[in-house]
Structure prediction request, 1007 residues.
Amino acid sequence: MQGSADGQGGLPRPALAEGGHVFTSVFIAAISLALFWMAAFTLWWQMHAWRTPETLAATRFDRPDGGRESSFSLLLPARHEQAVLEHTIERLLESSHSGFEIIVIVGHDDPETAAVAERAAARDPHRVRVVVDTHEAKNKPKALNTALPHCTGEVVGVFDAEDQVHPELLTHVDHAFRTTGADVVQGGVQLINFHSSWYSLRNCLEYFFWFRSRLHLHAQKGFIPLGGNTVFVRTDVLREAGGWDQNCLAEDCDLGVRLSSVGKKVVVAYDSDMVTREETPGSLMSLLKQRTRWNQGFLQVYRKKDWRQLPTRGQRMLARYTLMTPFLQAFTGLIIPLNVGVALLLDVPVTIAFVTFLPLVTAMVTFVFEIVGLHDFGRQYGLRVRLTHYLKLIIGGPFYQVLLAGAAIRAVWREQRGRGDWELTSHVGAHLIREDVHA
Amino acid sequence: MTSTLPGVTTEQPTAVPAQPSHARGHRPERTDKRRLTVRPVIRFRRSRADLLLCGALLVAILLVQGWNIQHYPTLSDDEGTYLAQAWAVQEGKGLAHYTYWYDHPPLGWMQIAFLTWLPSLFSPEAMTVAPMRFAMLLVSAASAVFLYVLARRLWLPRWAAGLAMVLFGLSPLSVVLQREIFLDNIAVMWMLLAFCLAASPSRHLWHHFAAGLAAAVGVLTKETMLVVLPALLVTLWRHSHRDTRKFAVTGAITACVLVGLCYPLMALLKGELLPGGGHVSLWDGITYQMSRPGSGFVLDPGSGSYGVLQSWLYYDRVLPLGGIAGAVLLMVTLRWSVTARALAGPALAVVILTAVALRPSGYLPAMYVIQGLPFLALVLAGGAASVTHAILRRRRGPREGRTLTTVRWTVLAALAATALAVVVPRWYDGNHTALTADANAPYRQAASWMATEVPDPSRARVLVDDALWLDLVHAGYEPGLGAIWFYKADLDPAVTKTMPNGWRDLDYVVASPTVRRDARDLPKVRDALEHSTAVAVFGDGEDRIEIRRIAQGDGIADGNRIAGGDGR
Prediction:
C-alpha cells in the first residue's frame, strides 16, 4: 500500500503485529503502567501536607495554653559522641517545661562519653542521670531498653546525642498529649546542612518531605513508621508493648508499626521553629551504610508481619507498600531510563511508546515539586538557597537514585547473608556550626 | 458559615487539630487578615436552588440548540473535515484518511470520534455531518454547566450565574456556532473545566494540578486556546492560598506543559518532528499555520476580518460588544469592585482575545469568537451584577428612607426593562430562524442524487467538499481516491499522482459554494469545473450546489475511471 489513502502513508516505523512483538509491547506497557501508578501514589502521598491550606495548617503544633500535665523522661543514648553530647544536654536543660528528667545511656566500654555524661549529672543531679549499658554487642534499642525501667516520667522521649532540641518543644508536646489523647507524639526532625554536599542537599529534602508531609498522612491513615528521635510515647504504653525490639535494625519504625497495628493513637506535628535539627552523614559511604541499615530494618519489619493486624485492607496495603518502598524505588530508578530507551530505539507502536513515557512524566512532576520544596525549605528555615543548589538538586537527582538503588540492593544482600550488625553513623557536628544562621 | 476550616475536624481525626489562626502566633495579624478575606464556599451539588436553576436553563438551552440542528446553519466545510477525520480514527485508518500533516493537534477529532462512536455503531450511515451535530449538544451542555459552576465559584450571585449561562447558551450567535462540529467548542469545554478547577473552593493541590491537565487538553484540542492560558493562571493565582500557592501554581504549570509536550513527542515517535525529505513534519505544520496570509485589520471595512466581524454581529451584538464593554468596566473598577477582582481571570481572557483579534495583519477565522463566548458571557453577567450592586447598595446607610430605596429599585427596574427591550426582539428573530430555517436542503438533495443517479459509485471518481464527503463514502464511493476532498487533487502528492491526465481522470465535481470559491487557487479543480457540465442543480443563487459531469470525448471515459486500481 502506498499513497496516503490508508492514512499511515509516511510512517517510518511500521506498527508491529506479530506474536513476539505483541508480547514485547504488552510487557513493556504493563511494566510502565505499574511504575506509573507506583510513582503517582508516592507523589500523591509526598504532597499530602500541601493538599489544601487547611491540611497544611493542621500539620502544625497547636499553641500551648500554659497548662502542664505530663512529666517527661528523655532518653539520650550516646556512643563515642563525647564531642557533641555536652552541648545537647545543656540545650535540653534549657527547656521551658518544668517536669522532665534526662537519662543519658552510655556503654560500659566507652569511658570518654561516660565522663562527659557524669560531669553533666554532677552539675544537675535532679534532672540528669546516667545509665550504663552493659550489653556485649551494643545497639540503640538495647540501650533504650536498658534505660526504660529507670524512667519515672509519664512520657518517654527519645533524642540522639547530636540533636538540637528547641526549648519550647516539650511544652508543645505536653499540650498535644493533653488535647488529643494521643499515645504517641512524633515531632519533626530536620537535616539542616543542605549546603555541605550534593547528597546532603537531597538528604535534607528527603527529611523535609517525610516529616513535613508524608508522616502526617501515615498518622491520618493509622499506620506509621516512627522516626528515630523526637518521638514521645506514654510510658505505660511503651512498657506494655515491651519496649524496643533489640534485634531490629529499624527499631523506631518497628515500634511505630507495632503500636499503630494495635490501634494506638499517633499524632504528628511539624513546626519549622520546633523541629529537632540534625546533620547528614559525613560521607557518601556513611550515608550508604545508614540507608542500608534502614532498608534492612524495613525489610525486617516487613517480615515480622505485625502490620498484618491492621484492621483495614487499605491500611495493610499502605503498610506493605511503605515498607517495600526502598526496593520499589531502586527498581523504578533503574527501569525508567531503560523504558525510555526502549520507546525511542525499539520498534514499538506509537501508543505503547507513549505509555512507556508515563513513569518519566510522574518523575518529572516529582522533580518539579522537589525544586519548589527546596524553595519552601529555604523559606521555612530562613536559609539562603542559591541557584547552584537548585542545579545540584537537579543534576544530583539521578546519582542519588543510584545511591538509593545501591543501598537497597546492599540491604537485600546483607539480609540474605544474615548480617544484622549495626553500621553506626558517625557525627562531626556540621549542623552545630551553622546553628546561628537563623535562630 | 462554612468558610475556612471544614477539613481540620472532619478529615484529620488523628492529626493535631491546630487552629491555624493560633498556630502561627508570632504573626497573627497577617494570618487573620487572610482568613477573613475567604468567602463562603458554594457547594453546588448540595444547593437545591442552584441545581434547579441550572437544570432548568440547561433544558432550555438544549431545546433551542437541538431543535432543527440538522437544518441550520449551513453545513460547513470544517465540520466535514473534522468529522471525516474522526471517522478515519474510528475506522482505524490512522489520524486522518489522507496523510496527517500536523495542521491541528489530532486530539480534537479523536474526541469527536469518541463522542460519535456509539451512535455510529448502531447506524454507521448516520456518521455524516448533519446527524452527528447532535453529539455537539453534549459538549454544549457540559460547557453550559461548567460556566454556571464557574460563575458561582467566582462568587457571582445565583441570578448572575444564570444570566451568564443564558447569554452563553441562548445568544443566537452561540446557538449557530455551538451547533456546529467545531474543535473550538470542545476546546472551550476543557478550558471551562480548567477554570472551574482553578477556582476550586477547597483549593486542593490536585484540583489545581487537574486544571493544568484540562487546560493542556483544551490547547491540544484547538491550539488557539494557548492565548487564554494567562487568564487561567490569574484565576489560579487568585484562588490559591498563600501558604500552598507555590505548589499549586507550579503543579498546574507542570501538568499543562507535560501534557502539551505529548504533541511534539508524538511527532518525535513517528519520526516527523523536523522537516525532511518525503514526509510531513510538525515543524512544517506550525510554519504553515504561522505564515497564513492575514485577513486584514478587523475595523478596516475593506478587509476580510471586517467581514468576519460583521458576520458575528449579524447574529448578535449584545454578547460580543456588551461583553467587551463589561470587560473594560471590570478592568477599570478593579480597585473598588469585589466582583471585578473575582472576575479578573475571565475579564483578562476577553481582553487578550480582543487584543489578538485587533492585530493589524492577523488571520481571523470565523470560529475565532467561539473561544471568547463563555468569557464574554461571564464578564457581561459580572458587569450586570456589579452595576446592580452599585445601584442597590452603594452609599446605603443603615437607616435609609423608603423613598430612596424605592428610587434605587425603580432605576434598576428601568435598566433591566431597557436591556430586555433591546435584547429580546433581536434574539427572538435570530433564534426563530435557527429553529425553523432549512439551509441544508441542497446538500441533502445533492447527496441523495449522488447516491442514486450515479451508476457505479464504487468505480466513480468525484471531487467533493468535505461536508458531503462522508455522505458519498456511505453511498459506496471509495474513500480518499474515489470520493476526493477537492483540494487534495491539487495539494496532496499522493492524490495528484493518481490523476496523470488531470481533469480527464475524474467523473464528477460536486460544486458547492466552497468548491467554487476555492477553485480560483486550485488549477486542477478549476479545470474540472471548466470541462464539465451541470447535470443537476439544487438551490439557487450563490448557495446553489451543482453536480457537474466531466465532459469526455465519448461520454464517460470508462478507461480512465480510477486510473488502474493497481496504482494504489
Residues 19-58+182-439 of chain A form one domain. DSSP finds 15 helices and nine strands in chain A. Strands of chain A lie at 72-77, 100-107, 128-133, 155-158, 184-187, 189-191, 231-234, 266-269, 276-278. The first helix of chain A runs from residue 19 to 46.
